[in-house]
Fold each of these.
Amino acid sequence: MSRVSPLAERLAQVKDRIAAAALKAGRKAGDITLVAVTKTAAPEQVREIIGLGVGDLAESRVQVLTQKVAQANEFYERKLKGGEPGLPPRLRWHMIGHLQRNKVKAVLPLVDCVHSLDSLRLAEEIEAFGGKTDRKIPVFLQLNASEEKSKFGVAVGAALHLAEQIDSMSHLALLGLMTIAPLTSDMAEARFVFARTREIFEELQWHHIGGPGFRHLSMGMSNDFEEAIAEGATMVRIGSALFGAKSSDQLEEETE
Ligand SMILES: *Cc1c(COP(=O)(O)O)cnc(C)c1O
């Protein structure tokens, strides 16, 4: 038997935990997409995880997106041409970090969807880009379900109105809600935030927002994805459990 790499091992563990959490919640593991967050990943780790069949990749920082996407896409196309087995059927890049309006033109050509839409003005900017490029751009409304002042995301009380406005835009496809739980070891607190997000999601569905495509909950990270799955997450965004802990420059950047 060939030796399994540390990344392959961690990927297998994460997949097992996703499957176990799904089973516990009476859900199918196949309904949950693992999105690999490449924030802390070295370029060779990104290539390796693609080779292991993971096709959904996410980045939160605009500055590194161009190079990361170009390198990953080049690797993927080359391996695909070479007939490498085990590749994902396609690569999809998810923008998960805060997006400033003046970065829309630079970021949107590189990514397939945006998880961090949280204002009307940003929605209008993406809508205009979609119009110019004749694209319908899949987006998630980011909800500040924990109502921490420091967090991005639309306030719970403003979510319905903003979702209606997004839904009326012809170049945006609203796929669902995204949320980030507070950084805490208290899993009950994380679970509460995910439950709250699911409630808002159901309320929006009740209002016929988004139509049949509105069916995703992007929630759960390395520390709390099992709680998120228990509350209905369909996409879990996992970085450090796959690629290892944060480097110091990334920590600095986050506290800026
Ligand atoms: C960094 C990040 C993640 C992944 O976090 P981990 O704890 O490393 O799994 C998920 N979502 C967003 C928005 C992030 O910025």
Amino acid sequence: MSSCLLLLFLGLASRGSSGLDIPPHDAVARVARFVANQCTWASMATISTHHPVQGQPFSNAFSISDGPPGHGTGVPYLYLTRMEVSVQDLQVNPQASLSLSLAQTDYCTQQGFDPQSPLCAHIILSGSVLEVNDTAEVEFAQKWLFWRHPEMKDWPSDHGWFFAKFNITKVWVLDYFGGVKTITPDEYFKATPYRKHLHSV
Ligand SMILES: *[C@@H]1O[C@H](CO)[C@@H](O)[C@H](O)[C@H]1NC(C)=O
Ligand SMILES: *[C@@H]1O[C@H](CO)[C@@H](O)[C@H](O)[C@H]1NC(C)=O
């Protein structure tokens, strides 16, 4: 009985964290959207404004959500405060880079893929961080950020938290051998990461 449960668990764990299959590696835009939806946090590099590394890249962890699992929008939303060191960089220069990797799910460990292997699919987003002003979009960002990160609703109310999004200008994808592939925001947003498909060969 318990070994059956274990096998069932291992079977599910070899897929993405929500039990869904990763798209085939040549469907690059779909893989990118899959990674964006599976990841709950990203490393964000800003151009530092802080002594003694002014002008140098500065990478820091941020919680993200692009919407409900299985139905992400592809837009990474963030919950930020101007008291935060990287957000202070963004006030001066909103340009940033987000790195998202399936290494943070159980997929790569279960498959035996090292985080630096392209088989452990990861993406780098270029663009900038914009405050979200539209009421409906603020509600969407809040709903799905707080759903994935329940403790956010208890973060100190005097810190001036606001919702932001990563405005993507270029997507870099490492999901197979042969070097990095790039896709445009158009290709990225048109892709349907979770469309049912037969196992590719
Ligand atoms: C929200 O408003 C700020 C300040 O006017 C602006 O800089 C930012 O670009 C706006 N965000 C979006 C997503 O348009
Ligand atoms: C947001 O990204 C689009 C490309 O998707 C780009 O054309 C636009 O200039 C960007 N907006 C800002 C404010 O960076």
Amino acid sequence: MDFSSEPPHSELLHVQAHEPFNAEPPVSSLVEFNITPEELVFCRNHGPVRIFDEDSYTFQIHNGEQSTTLTLGNLKALPRTNIVAALQCAGNRRNEMGKIKPVNGVGWNDGVVANCRWTGARLRDVLAHVGVSSTSTNSQHVCFASYATLCQDDHYYGSSIPLNKAFSLTDDVLLAYEMNGEPLPSERGGPLRVVVPGVLGARWVKWLDTIIISSAESPNFYQQRDYKVLPPTVENKQAAIPLWSKYPAMTALPLNSVVATAIHDDKDGSLYVKGYATPSDFNVAGVDVSVDDGETWAPAKITYQEGRWSWALWEANLNVHGSMEHRVVYSRARDTQGNLQKRVCDWNMRGVAYSAWGWKEW
Ligand SMILES: Nc1nc2c(c(=O)[nH]1)N[C@H]1C(S)=C(S)[C@@H](COP(=O)(O)O)O[C@H]1N2
Ligand SMILES: [Mo]
């Protein structure tokens, strides 16, 4: 892997690994913005960051015998769509799972999520443009690949989604060329990345250069032998080897919430808390907070939420007069189906999909 041409990285991030570059913002800064500014968007890389020239950028679509090369201009000629969607790494909150028992992976805290506005062409329009029809979708997959760089575990980065998801009218899968109203930065996969709202970041391939319609999922390492929730009995990489192929690739992340800030005023006994919640198969309907170890809950106020795929920001003003045994405030998200975020979360070897109640000491 060649790291000689990395762009300058944001100095507001806490660096978790240098090569490849992995970094996250402090969660207290993150929740200060409804739409995450680029300098506070976490960086998750399995290889070097590449810088490409927009004007000469092309990508290919392979469908059976047929191959089509498209330019960014071709893509921009298709209808433009804008969505707000939370990009979240499956390893968000990994350090908390690591307290149950050590896990394998970058030591992420709870800032590995970014709520951004993505603009691009709908994948279904792009596929229709090259003659892939929505009637031939059964059990087919859309494989995304970036051959831009070597990665730690494979010679390219890849992922896939079912073809019927690409054609779904509600899933909003995009090939994005802008973020927050600006051309997509190199660090974010510019000039072109995949945006799969509601699905873990690992599928959002950056520097997208190849799409293959296939009867199988992407054979890439990051689709097949990573980003899966293995059972708690699988305790190390060796034990995982025969099991990867038996477990499904992760799709939606679990319903989640995090307490980002807790400010206690000793004099008047007030406690101000603020955090985020992220949706899963259903949207976030509300967040409740508790200062008595989950015995009673008070609803927090949702201060921001935008459409189906954004995060929810929330805050609450509590009164914590009197002596509390545990100076901990918990958060618990609720979805539109009445599902509640759970108190505990099963351990898994890779430390992915941690989603136990959010909490903070005050
Ligand atoms: N080409 C490429 N795409 C990639 C990755 C990568 O390493 N290479 N990492 C994936 C993972 S695991 C995540 S969480 C997101 C992170 O996107 P970001 O760096 O813009 O935050 O990109 C995904 N797309
Ligand atoms: Mo990720």
Amino acid sequence: MVDLQSQYKRLKSEIDDAMANVLEQTNFINGPAVKSFQSNLEEYLNVKHVIPCGNGTDALQIALMALDLQPGDEVITSTFTFIATVEVIALLKLKPVLVDVDPDTFTLIPEEIEKSITSKTQAIIPVHLFGQGAEMNAIMPIAQKYNLSVVEDTAQAIGCDYKFNSTITKLGTIGDIGCTSFFPSKNLGCFGDGGACFTNNDALAEKMRMIVNHGSKKKYYHQIIGINSRLDTLQAAILDTKLKHLDNFNQRRQKAASWYDQELKNIEDLQIPSKSSKSDHIFHQYTLKVKDGKRDELQSYLKENNIPSMVYYPVPLHEQEAFTEYQDKDISLANSETLSSEVLSLPMHTELTEEQLKDITTTIKRFFNHE
Ligand SMILES: *Cc1c(COP(=O)(O)O)cnc(C)c1O
């Protein structure tokens, strides 16, 4: 699905130099590369504060901790996302309220958010799934109307432009806090775990900087309960190097996606990814919808032909065993349920060659007798 090796080989000398530098300095925790990456990312995203942390799941937890929510407060988010988004809500003794997604863009339906708001609702977490923005133009006014905080899950969409009202903005910088992950396979990935929160709000930034550092501003003086969540210096040095290439990484993904689109758009039983009118798409995943119950059969056929593919996500979160206590028994979030039986993601990364793409699309066409 991803080819981290070829990307490393292509950027080897730059990355090796950055890593060697850290090894020589042995400043492994909060070394100079962390500050450097932080300020370069602030500049890239055009956001006032970046708070690096240990991983994307921590970033979401840190964001929610900074919002001062009370046990039992409700947080509305998507049922069609990676588990991390919802896990942290439950871990903080808040109540996840899962909402259905648009069947074309796979992102939250603003009307469904509004319908789910109660007197206990405190926050919304829109997920910019697969590399495309949720409908922030509709979500932000709802948040304002009901005085709710917005935490953007930008783990799959770092660097993606969104036309917010009339301004082109980076996703993750529109709500109160944006969160991202630098997991190796993400669009900006390090060589281990990493994550960050972003905000334009000085008070939230100050609080998140304390939370990641055991609730402390001054060593051994702790004002609030925090956690230990840091981006290693080594990972920061790698990310600082790779950040310079992020736009190019995203363009390479878009180029591969255009190939897939062009070759697959005329197959009746396939639906290629829909494009939002407001958001760019940076293709963290290239996700097809396979109609007529042919998804699993197509996936097996690809496997026989040595082509990897993945189902993101096979079970919507409201149907996960871990979340049964949070859901009404007969809740039906029909779009997400249907999607989980239709979606199929194809290999997507920065190093896909024309030969590989051709092999993948010809195999798919052969399956549908569409040559
Ligand atoms: C990857 C991901 C996360 C979690 O990031 P980690 O760094 O793996 O903890 C959260 N949300 C979404 C949507 C993700 O894709």
